[in-house]
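Case 279 in the screening queue. Each case pairs one protein sequence with one candidate compound; here the compound is FE2/S2 (inorganic) cluster. For every case the pipeline is the same: read the inputs, emit a complex structure as tokens, and attach any notable structural observations.

Predict complex for case 279.
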Amino acid sequence: MDTLKLHHRLWIANSSEVKERSPIIFECTYNGKGESLLLIRYDGQCIGYLNKCVHMPFRLDCEKKTLFDHTRDKIKCSMHGIIYDPLTGESLSPTMCTGEKLNAINVVEDSAGIWIDDECVESVKEYNEMLSQPTRKWILANGFNPDDIDQSGKYNDTPLILACREGEKVIAEELVVSKANVNHRNMDGTTALWACVVSNSFDMADRLLGAGASIDSQNDNGATTLMYAASAGKTEWVKYFLARGSDTSPTSLDGFTALDLASNVECLRLLKAVPVTVE
Ligand code: FES
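Case 279 output:
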């Protein structure tokens, strides 16, 4: 007689916790063995895979915690670089394991959140992975504590603020994936988003905003990142913030708006074109 194997769905996260192309790793028991599980949201859909490369039995994040390639469009193994289609888990590499697929895990999303509904998976818990060795070294070399990523150092900066200011995208990405505080304020009250403007890191700014960074945070002088961009004549950044709905009405402690602070004609025109909202 066949044995009827009963299983129950395992709730793993709120829908809001799984952001587009920001993978979360869990530890799970899969067919009785400890494994790692990867949950991603791609084009709105929640998808699960065993976190194990088809090339060799290594975790996809064994070398680096970033699991998407530089375009943030494909999953990439950090060991030898196989690129996978996020929707099918299929290797798109022309030379390695072409067509082989990551082991899919059945994921269900409903009004209560995200569930694993896969009879092979018996238990799941979120995996708090340590940072990669290069990132830990960078954090240590800059006087921070890699075991407490939100601990601030010189100027009350955190590793994330410094990484963004120095354009260290891989490190900043790992810190965001590790849930570093994206709204920490340093000695001047500026945040990692401001630091992205300093280093001209548009894609990192997008990551921070996607992870909940406040676009209109004001520093100790009342300045927003939009004001900073306008006063520094960073026209592309003014466009960037306006396109993402930045509020033009805040004033600095001196009573100046972003428009008042515009230091070139392009910034002035862009800010003047924003309709004034009457409350
Ligand atoms: S182990 Fe993933 S590409 Fe080789």
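Case 279 observations:
- The longest helix spans residues 133-141.
- The pocket of FE2/S2 (inorganic) cluster is lined by residues 53, 55-56, 58, 77, 79-82, 96 (CB under 6 Å).
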